[in-house]
Amino acid sequence: METLNQILESEIFNFRSYALKVSQLVSILVIIVVTKLILWVLKKAFFSKNKSSKIKTGSAYALLKIIKYVVWIIAIALVLESIGIKVTLLIAGSAALLVGIGLGLQQTFNDVISGIILLSERSIEVGDVLEIDNDVVIIESIGLRTSKAMNRDDISIIIPNSLITTSKVINWSHQSHQTRFKINVGVAYGSDVDFVIKNLEKSAFEHPEIHNKKLIEARLLNFGSSSLDFQLLFFSSNIFRIGKMKSDIRRLINKNFTNNNIVIAFPQMDLHFKSDIPK
């Protein structure tokens, strides 16, 4: 026992009045190992196959992320205390320095605070489909400063959290598993309105990925300057890849219009000349 005590009390590093002992190094390793073990157990508990289905994956991820940061902050504080650095004195002595750093890293702190808001409020979760700056992305992870997302071109995008919290963001996954989409088309004046509506609804009905085909609806939207403007409305659960689905439906519309002699309008202008203008 004495030998063990002597080993633990032996110095590894000595600088002026400060000495790093073996016991302190062992304490640091124990703190790190215990911290990683706690986080591993928590992760298994949150994402266990036998866990209650009432907790969503996104909510579990957000809660685990917050706990992870709290646990690591406590672990770092314990490490500093174990090597003889008083955390309270360190914070008090570096207050002026922290103010200067805060001013220089204002945007970074803004992103961090935004990350805490996202993780705590859970208004946006992992797996949600968002529309940000006219770009549709699916959220893959939410970090403390940035979030990682994938757009429709399978390009990974790093988004500052402040952009999500301060911009107008459409969450396509927030309300329901299905969303209504629209396709606009203009046909030539003189076309049979009822026949056009029938062909538009038929085109949507032919697509296999339409959700609840009873809700397909076509409308006469407006009398345009060069066309009768129609709108086709339909529901789909394929939110992220809706661009391809819309393209397929437009192809069906073009095919049905061609087969039924319905002319898709193009911009045109009529000029009228008066021949009886006096000299």
Account of the protein in words:
The chain is elongated and about 115 Å long. α2 packs antiparallel against α3. The strands form three sheets. A five-stranded antiparallel beta sheet has the order 6-5-4-3-7. With 279 residues, the chain is an alpha+beta fold.
The largest pleated sheet is described as: 5 strands, antiparallel
Low-confidence stretches: none
Helix percentage range: 40-55%
> What letter string, H or E per element, gives the SSE order?
HEEHHHHHEEEEHEEHEEH
Write the layout of secondary structure elements.
Elements: H1 2-9, E1 11-15, E2 18-21, H2 22-46, H3 57-82, H4 87-93, H5 95-104, H6 106-121, E3 129-132, E4 135-142, E5 146-151, E6 156-160, H7 161-166, E7 170-171, E8 179-187, H8 193-205, E9 217-223, E10 228-236, H9 242-259
Helix pairs in contact: 2-3, 3-6, 8-9
Question: What are the main properties of this structure?
Answer:
279 residues; alpha+beta; SH3 type barrels; Alpha-Beta Plaits; 3 domains; 5-stranded antiparallel beta sheet; 3-stranded antiparallel beta sheet; 10 strands; 21% strand
What's a quick, concise take on this entry?
Its main location: membrane. With 279 residues, the chain is of the alpha+beta class. It has helices at 2-9, 22-46, 57-82, 87-93, 95-104, 106-121, 161-166, 193-205, 242-259, and strands spanning 11-15, 18-21, 129-132, 135-142, 146-151, 156-160, 170-171, 179-187, 217-223, 228-236.
